[in-house]
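Here is one chain, start to finish.
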Amino acid sequence: MIPRWLRRHRSERSLMADIRVDGEKLRAFTAAVFEKVGLTPADAAIEAEVLVWANLRGVDSHGVQRVNGYVHAVEAGHYNTRPDIRIERETPATMLIEADSAFGPVVTTYAMKQAVEKARGAGIGWVLIRNTTHQGAMAYYAQMAARENMAGIASVCNPPNMAPPGARAPGVHNSPIAIAVPGSGGRTISLDMATSVAAFGKLDVAVDRGESIPDTWALDGDGHPTTDPRRARFLQPAAGYKGYGLALIFECLSSLMVGNPLLTAAISGRGARPGAQNSFIGAIDIATFTDPDTYRTQIDELVSAMKGLPRVEGVDELFVPGEPEELVHNERIEHGIPLPAGTRDKLIEVATKFGLKVPWEA
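Its structure:
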């Protein structure tokens, strides 16, 4: 039986407003756009890889619907296409990187590679990034470490876009956290979650699809819950004080640690550079603590234990974090990535700007 989670994504094929696009064609188009705005071919390929990877896994909020916004950010001077990425501090286990407003995936893939290399020697690698920009789906970087038989962790902070419980103004960012650990045969347990009920990108996707949103996702400008994604001004935290508390602590572990406060700067009116982000990236070498083969086997056993739990009526299958996305990935590799009308309009705009053919006509 096909799991309901996957059936929901398969039903997307029946939506007349959606067009399915081959992932490779979408990746080539996206890379071409970023080359046009000034990235090197290598950096453009990284950026395209991370965005299309998210689409392939069903995380459309962090996929190519953001391309147009990134182009506008370059034109506004917020993103640097030829940044001076440099290491400012370093120890055997740690590193501080100044990103110089680099495209997020470009500097973050570099940072995770550095973290993995440090973990090989010190058992753990911990890298802080100052002044990066939007990094895409954070699970991409955590899974980079998992593919090296390590545990990976990645988080990011931005200026505020989420209201603390009881507030009617944003005070924290809905900072996401991703953690991935390796099992056997390339499988992972891969958690990737925002500290809000839903990421802002999901509101953008709802606009693209012409859909409403649950009233638990966001607040309007007066601090009232809204079901209209166009009226949403800031997000609601996941699990109330729990999501808010995590978001606040992530600011302490990233922005304050690199001397670049984002939340207080915005709240006090001093302002923060549009698009500014700070991030922490980590890798833990499993072999430092236990036998990696034993660890992967125990991960497999843990997954089997979770999936073998008794299910409530109407539930076909239990999933561990990252598994639903893998199922969608397999479906979209076969059938293509669905692009709703609103997302296509964004891509048509950049295609027209740069004289490119849209990927569904390539």
